[in-house]
Write a structure and sequence with these properties.
seven-stranded mixed β-sheet, mainly beta, four-stranded antiparallel β-sheet
Length: 116
Amino acid sequence: QVQLVESGGGLVEPGGSLRLSCAGSGFTFRRYFMGWYRQAPGEERSLVASISGAGDNTNYADPMKGRFTISRDNAKNTVYLQMNDLKPEDTAVYYCRAQFTSLNYWGQGTQVTVSS
């Protein structure tokens, strides 16, 4: 059974940092392209960052460049999202996604709230 379990969300003040984790199981993690997405109330889910299976190719949405870093540890079947200099507009539910050819899996999401 495929599972993606996100953790690390919470409440943080503007300018603060959080590190999200997504642990995968039930599939060959290293083969999968991994991504972080987010969805704020009333908005569509959108890409935050993605990383190739080997971790040698990353991509970021423009608002996240320079503030967020995606990484992965294939030995631990885990992908991370380090978020720095958080802003109130970063408030959203953050989802982990695994893709390989036509296979596509999502986690349940973790809430990130940036507020003073």
